[in-house]
Amino acid sequence: MTSWIEIIQKNFPEQFFPNFPLYTLSRMQIGGRGGGLLFLRNSTDVKKFIKIQSENCIPFTVLGNGSNTIFQDRFYPGVIVKLKDEFEKIEKVGQKTYFIGAGVKINHLMKFLEEENLAGMEELAGIPGTIGGSLTMNAGANNYCIGDSVTKVWVWEGGGEETISPDFSYRRGVNTGGIILGCWVRLIPSNKEKIKKKIREIIQKRKEKFPLKFPSCGCVFKNPSKEVSAGYLIEKAGLKGRRIGGVMVSPLHANFIVKIGPASFRDFITLVELIKREVEKKFGILLDLEVVIV
Predict the structure, then answer these.
(1) Hey, do 4-86 and 88-207 end up sharing a CATH topology, with the first three levels equal?
(2) Which residue of 45, 72, 197, 289 is most buried, as measured by CB atoms within 10 A?
């Protein structure tokens, strides 16, 4: 019987890499191996993959830049999908409307805003992710979320491609069992120097506030409310600097778990459970994970 790995290898001979080390795909640099890594370059590739996936019941996870994803130590029996080429483009499609592919990295979007004198999404500056990943979790900062700018989202599910208008809320974005391919956003013409200044200031604040010199998955927990942050609760529970194995609660920002030495997923999840227990014991609040575990 032909395995699904052989089927994908046959259909995507230059784009599929079996038995791939997943830790190389996560900014946390933790994890085991997976069935394979597959690059999809255009909508034809997506259509072909979805057909193969549905016919063979292949588990899959779509990955952006791996900035809020951590892989377990055990083997992942599926395929990791990354979007390239056609999905890394930004195009003007209306007077103030632009299409942004799901594979576009946030830093590339910031350069585009500067070059084209456009404003409206600068608050995403410094986030080390992609548009697709940002849409999944409605990423944002400084009281802004990507959903504030999005008008429609292009997705591909088992039945084919669709254009949807998601109901965004705090850290709740596009919920699909398929693949997010891109979105349409509204951008506003503005002054180039004003845009560049704002982006530089936001990035500088992130450097001062977050422990960006160490591998991490960004904020580990969602904020329980607009009034109370997860970082505040973790800090007040006395957990800054708490270490298990090669991971530690950052002394700079308590909602970051940073990798400071050789570490495993077991180290990470053990520290996560410790944080949840201590915060619940002290404040009666059960923290909810923001990072995605695969």
Answers:
(1) no
(2) 45
CATH architecture of 211-293: Alpha-Beta Complex (3.90)
How far out from the chain centre does Cα 226 lie? 21
From the list 15, 139, 150, the residue with the least C-alpha distance to 79 is: 15
- Could you tell me how many residues make up the chain? 294
Q: Domain residue spans in the chain?
A: 4-86, 88-207, 211-293
Return the CATH class of domain 4-86.
Answer: alpha beta
Give the separation between CA 287 and CA 277, rounded to whole angstroms: 9
Decide if 259 contacts 28 (C-beta within 8 A): yes
Query: Distance between CA 157 and CA 3 in Å, rounded?
Result: 23
**pLDDT by residue for the chain (294 residues), tens digit each?**
469 999 999 999 999 999 999 999 999 999 999 999 999 999 999 999 999 999 999 999 999 999 999 999 999 999 999 999 999 999 999 989 999 999 999 999 999 999 999 999 999 999 999 999 999 989 888 888 999 999 999 999 777 888 888 887 777 778 777 899 999 999 999 999 999 999 999 999 999 999 999 999 999 999 999 899 999 999 999 999 999 999 999 999 999 999 999 999 999 999 999 999 999 999 999 999 999 999
The CATH code of domain 88-207 reads 3.30.465.10
Q: How far apart are CA 59 and CA 78, in angstroms?
A: 5
Q: How many helices (H) and strands (E) does the chain have?
A: 7, 19
